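The step that takes the researchers longest sounds almost clerical: writing a folded protein down as plain text. Below is the pair of lines this work produces for a single protein:

——
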Amino acid sequence: MKIIFIILSFLISWETLNAQSEAIRVAWNQAKELCNAQEYTQAKPYLLNVYKEMPRPLCCYWLAMAYDLEEQPDSAIFYYKTCIQNSPKKPQLAAWDNLIRIQLRQLDFAAAYATAWDALQKYPGNKTLIEEFKEVCKWSYFINHLDFPKNYLSSTVAHKEYEVKTITEQELIVKNIRDDKGQFLHVGNRQYKGTYEIWKCSYNSSKTPVEIKFNLADHDIDRQLESQAATAKAAFNDTNNSLDIRLGALLTLLPLSDKQVLDLLANDQEAIRLCTCTEVKSTSSKKVKRSCLSDKSELVRTTCEQLDAFK
């Protein structure tokens, strides 16, 4: 009798498990169909069911996207981080990228910098992560040091127009804009119209034209560049500024001469040397390249070995 009871219990458990597994498979297929159509919010109930049983990285990423688009940053950050943690062997670059970006939109520059720096150490030489690290520094410089409007970063919705002074500001704004599905902009061309510079763009996977209008404070480009350089040099040289602000200032001074690069490579700060070496071009001198490849930091050396300019 006891044996029969054990067998019946096993069969009931097996049937329950199969039913649960089938329900999860159905939920996952429904979630995939919706997410592939970029309907992340509609997919969220299915994703949550799947997550309870199988917190696979893609499920976590799509959940993060849903919460991100719903402007629930705490939940989005949790699932982006879970996506990364649940995939230790395969780099989840989109999750890293979006995690850094959402921390930036919260104006939490310290967290964004820490996340970007951590990503650079885990995946040295990755161009996407290098670019995002630089974005963090530039945003911090422009907002914290130059009083650039915070809502240009905190909101991803395209404004009717933007007040700007430099091309760097324009580039930062365009890279931050997203549509209601989280799609970013591709830039087509730029043209002047009166006091405006208009960027002709379209969202990723869309051919519908989008115009981004920039009201320029000064049309004298040479005067703009001269003023920007003087301000940036002062900000970089001021060691009272945080490192992210100093790096943001440095990145507005590009391009750098070989002499300037060599001077920067003598700096004690690893992040300054790393940023400098990632700006080295294939046309830079052999001396500059050797200095980067022989840097005392393993991170700097490993990063440079992965970059095209050093091959």
